């Protein structure tokens, strides 16, 4: 099978490419702005073209034509960027991915599209269900929702193309985390997703900033579990993933952001050289507006109903929040020199050398 991954150097793309090469005889082609995470994979079964897919349209079209399945993973992924750069978010997430989806339609190629847990937004349901839950976005003046809106619209467009014969699967990652998530050495507020944001602060001896006190909840999902599901979707035995939407999240890892912060402190402090973190860690509340700007609004709870993935893919997540954090933090801590509390030297963090 020929797999095309657009955004192949990203968190999910790079890990998926490694997994495919390790477990199958498929070939992987991909494009990304950089190739630092996947350079080591280069070989007869793996090609990464560095470039901007918004400019390299002919290359993308030609690769779609020769692929058996396409994963358009290119996107920006932090709420801070949705608030600060809503137009760029729309252009990349919606316009560019729509072009790719239409190329899949033209060439009759299967598409496996990353929808997002964000589409449920402020849904009042206890657990979010792919078939029945309403998708409840906030007002237009809150730019945060432009990402969820763009992804939702693509979900709907792909679904509609399905009626015209497009083979597709939509998957919704719920706060996946693991080695390679984001670069914890970037210190600015909102420059990465919460797990790497907190990790960088803890390692540099900076306070953790709990938006609105950290009462909001997420179901954190370890990368390997998510990839297990993605591999099942790609294998697609008996067409079991065709025309379906799957929440890929771990309801057992439902935790508040304050609870996540506490668990991260405990896990890091268990590593040799990092014991001081238990004493030194500080948490300060901050309003969403002060942290992200006026265009922010939060998702108070985000719990997935994963019955569809269990039933059709035979999938269930296995890695607990604590175990996943221990694996991820161990990975990053091994690249940083502790302690001299407050001063940490990062060497190549963000590059998953031993995922
Ligand atoms: C994320 C991102 O939009 C995407 O990566 C993705 O589509 C989706 O969710 C997902 O991974 O399922 P969100 O969970 O809100 O959205 O983003 P995070 O940056 O990971 O923040 C999680 C929570 O932690 C938010 O409530 C945020 O306000 C809070 N937070 C973040 C803090 O309290 N302090 C910080 O320093 C950073």
Question: CATH superfamily assignment of the largest domain?
Answer: NAD(P)-binding Rossmann-like Domain
pLDDT average, as an integer?
94
In spatial order, strands of the major sheet run: 3-2-1-4-5-6-11
Helix run count: 12
Distance between the termini: 24 Å
Instruction: List unreliable stretches of 5+ residues.
Output: 342-355
Largest sheet report? 7 strands, parallel
- Sequence of secondary-structure elements: EHEEHEHHEHEEHEEEHEEHHEHHHEE
Number of strands: 15
CATH class of the largest domain: Alpha Beta
Question: How does this structure look, described?
Answer:
- The structure is a single chain.
- This protein is α/β, with parallel strands linked by helices and 355 residues long.
- The protein folds into two domains: 212 residues, Rossmann fold; 99 residues, UDP-galactose 4-epimerase, domain 1 (Alpha-Beta Complex), CATH 3.90.25.
- 38% of the residues lie in helices and 16% in strands.
- The protein is built from twelve helices and 15 strands.
- The strands form five sheets. A seven-stranded parallel beta sheet has the order 3-2-1-4-5-6-11, with helices on both faces. The protein has a two-stranded parallel sheet with strand order 7-10.
- Helix 4 packs parallel to helix 5, helix 6 crosses helix 8 and helix 8 crosses helix 12.
- The two termini are 24 Å apart.
- Uridine-5'-diphosphate-glucuronic acid binds next to helix 6 and strand 8.
- Uridine-5'-diphosphate-glucuronic acid (UGA) binds next to helix 6 and strand 8.
